[in-house]
Amino acid sequence: MKSKQESVSSFQMASLLLTFTTGSSVIFIPGQITNAAKNGAWISILISYLLGVMILAILIYLYKRAPELSWVGFMRKTAGPWVTSLLLIPLTFVIFWQLAAIVIEIGGFFKSTMMKDTPNSIIQGLFFLTVALTARAGIEVMARMFLLLLIFMYIFVMAVLLLASPLFHGEYLLPVIPDGFKPILYGAYISYGFPYAEIALFSLLLPFTRRKESGRLTKYLHLALFINCLTLVFSILCTIMVLGPMSGHLNYSLFQLARLISIQDILERVESVIGFSLIIGVYMKAAIVLFMITTLLSDWFNIKDSRLLTYPVALIGLLLSVSMYPDEITFFVDGYTMWTLIDHTAYVMPLLIIFVVALFRRKKGGTSSPTAASSSQNGKP
Amino acid sequence: MITRFTMLLVTIVLMFLSDKSDLSKSGRHARIIYAMLMLPVLYLGIVFVTELRWPNLDELLRYLFSGPVKVILASLNATQ
Amino acid sequence: MEKEETNSRCNDTSDSSESPQLSNDTTNDLPPLSSHLVENRQQIEHIFIDCSDLILLPWRYGPDLSEQAFSVYFDTMIQQHHTNYVKETLQDLVNHRVGTGESVTPEQIIRFFQNHGVSSGTAELLKDFDEVTRHITEGCLVIFFDKWNQALSYKAAEVEKRQVSEPINEPVVQGPHITLIEDINTNIGILRHLLQSPKLKFISFNAGRESNRTVSYGYLEGAVNPEVLTNFQSRIKSIKEEEILEVSYLEDWIGDSVYSPFPQVRYTERPDNTAAALLDGKIIVMVDGSPTVLICPGNFYEFLMSSEDYYQRTIFSSLIRLLRIGAFFIALMLPSTYVALSTFHSELIPTVLLLAILDTREGIPFPAFMEALIMEIFFELLREAGIRLPRPIGSAVSIVGALVIGQAAIQAKIASPVMVIVVALTGIASFALPQYSMAIALRIMRFPLMVMGATLGGVGIMIGFLLALLHLCKLRSLGQPYMAPTTPLDIWQLRDVLVMVPRKFLLRRPRNRHMHRVIRKQAK
């Protein structure tokens, strides 16, 4: 069964979800979505949030169907081992890409702000080392530690957003829909890819919840997602109110926001605080993703102790991140435009396929063959 | 290139040293999987050290997805 | 009298000293007592050869003082008047119950003591030399009678012990000023006086082959978590042969992680602290001969609390707690932050302060890291030396050392004034923490963080901080998470952790998790 019977409470699982979805997105997303959807960016978030809620509901439903099985085990039981492997192969490739992408992103941030002279490989190597040590400690330790860090991150971010309030110009918010609805859909497309479709990966983590607490799990998880949505919307609104038409053109919007804060000449350079929260948020997400990969691989190949694979996977991730993208622009294009399609296909489609098959099997009393609903897994969304 | 090679070698050796005790305790099955994970490490290591432009994961993804993505973006009138 | 006499170590040159590890040495091969006084006496003289403070006092009783007996005891452990007192009591009893001192016969004595006559008092009957040896070394008076193959033993030990006075290391402004002393019976007595309940359990056992120390652990039934108790008992079980000279030796058995710099158990010498810990569901361990009590399991936030918090007003205590948390971070991160900021991220320091710092750093040949390292090492040396200085010299040397050498270092341009301030602040902050073991942990952790800050700048400090946090979250103490109750989050317990809640709310509900859980279960 689960290695070492590690288990977290439903509250901790929900805080992990909040960390995972908010940690890195709160810094990157406002800028990108505002770039795409201008003033209607917050509507885009709401749209993609609704899609995320649906994915979360499916996740929880499938978890409750067989709480004692791991996600891979459940897939095998529902759809058979061959279909499972077929669905897992693209997922594995894409999740490795995601791990490397997270570190490339933060490496770029480091290089441009704090450590201008250090070669990329060292920065990313250090980052991966910390992440690997954290993921190795297990999900219980991670849940405990990340709760503390999450609270700090939230305090910093909220403090910055509130301190920026003297710079708010409410009139920048209007007009809400300047160019029609299509840009808002484009923004929803981007924000669906990052962060909302990624919560499909949480199917790997839900089996770690303590059994007797699964009653409150639904409540807490949805609450966590809702808080995440509120945070993103709030930061988008603040960004627009402060930066106005310029908000789409700057990369790390919250960072730029913090730069502008200057109170009495004492409280300046607050962006270092945001820089730290960003680093911590990305670090937490990377640790969770690394843990997901090791769980996935150890469940797939029946290895009892998933900790064993942590270092090799981290090393693969490191090598990917240093060798993949020679220039940043391709990475940005890939990251924000292609990512939605990629992760929808690799993460969400298997979830949906298993969901449909599970529904079918339920209706037919479990005697039907699992080939009825599995279409080609490379289908368009 | 030499520096990259030595750095990579040191990293791999350290990794083996720290996993040695765990590996000896676990069965043959786990060791096989561990060895299989070393294959991408080998390939990517060569790419990293020699800075060759061999096919990589990002190119694979781009190859598969750029077509459909263009269609979607066009339908959304995106300027990106 | 504040002098405390230690047990006089007897050079036991009998065969048992050659094989100290084996449990079946000659002491177990000692014969049972014989009925002949002469044989017993020879055996005693053989066992305690070369123990010149052992007294063998022969005396006679009975009709015409014809019956023989002798007393054996360690002169150094028993006050002189005790010997006479015991003998007198014996003769007194004989006078009033059995007969006059001159008329009592061995058979009457035997019958009286074997049937535990009412006035036989605290006399114990001993059957073999193993028990006799043990009782004599524990400080009892043993009396052998001719024609009787058993011996009587009276507890008569009176070793000098300290008076119950002001605690040396944990003074408080307001609150009880008593401390636990080196005698374990007195300590247990004081604790029982504070917690008058049959649920307060104390379990004693003797440990150590040569030292034969009494080790006691206590807990409050109903408050202690049963899993923790079983965990503790299984760890303690293996201590039987080891010489436990001080209660902190036990930390290695009880603690979860020996190599972690952070302490997993707490120490105190105040009985009110101990009683509060017992009420909180902790297990305490005491060793005879040591005034310190070990409290386990330890919890990170407890190391930042002091008993004074409970004796002062709520708001004040809350603010002081926050101050201590600030002191914790200062003691841990101030030198490394200063080094990182001044070396790598000078743009983060407000301009005016930056100019002041740069001004004072003019002409210093070392980089900030070397400067910090030198000053830190100097401060650590000062601290270590200060512990061992005899009192008359101590204050003079500390003033001279700190002022003159500090001033001289600044004028010789070895260190900048800012660095001296940083190092001094760090030292003061670490003294503000109530528990010495936590301050030690911070002293250790400060140096790696400085190295990380000096090499990698702000990122290094962050990575070091994250790794330290990871270690703290992973640490367990007797199986309980070290960082409870912030993680795993337990809002009810948070009422006492970071800020103080008024005593009304603190005490009205059960004080600890386990009680709370039990009562909740019963309520359901």
UniProtKB/TrEMBL annotation, chain A:
Gene Ontology CC: membrane
Keyword Mitochondrion: no
Assigned keywords, A-Z: Germination, Membrane, Transmembrane, Transmembrane helix, Transport
Subcellular location as annotated: Membrane
GO biological process, one term: spore germination
Topology versus the membrane: Multi-pass membrane protein
Pfam families for the chain: Spore_permease
Top-level lineage group: Bacteria
Transmembrane segments: 41-63, 84-110, 122-139, 146-164, 184-208, 220-243, 273-296, 308-326, 338-360
Family from the record: Belongs to the amino acid-polyamine-organocation (APC) superfamily. Spore germination protein (SGP) (TC 2.A.3.9) family.
Alphabetized NCBIfam families for the sequence: 2A0309
Name recorded for this polypeptide: Endospore germination permease
Organism in which the protein naturally occurs: Paenibacillus roseus
Automatic annotation (TrEMBL), chain B:
Residue spans crossing the bilayer: 33-52
Keywords, in A-Z order: Membrane, Transmembrane, Transmembrane helix
Superkingdom of this protein's organism: Bacteria
Protein name per Swiss-Prot or TrEMBL: Uncharacterized protein
Organism: Paenibacillus roseus
UniProtKB/TrEMBL annotation, chain C:
Cellular component terms (Gene Ontology): membrane
Superkingdom of origin organism: Bacteria
Pfam families: GerA
Keyword Secreted: no
Record-annotated membrane-spanning stretches: 322-344, 394-412, 418-437, 449-471
Disordered, as annotated region: 1-34
Keyword terms, alphabetized: Membrane, Transmembrane, Transmembrane helix
Biased composition (Polar residues): 8-29
Keyword field contains Transmembrane helix: yes
InterPro entries xref list: Spore_Ger, UPF0353/GerABKA_families
Gene Ontology BP, a term: spore germination
Family: Belongs to the GerABKA family.
PANTHER family in UniProt: LEUCINE ZIPPER PROTEIN 4, SPORE GERMINATION PROTEIN
Protein name: Spore germination protein
Organism this protein belongs to: Paenibacillus roseus
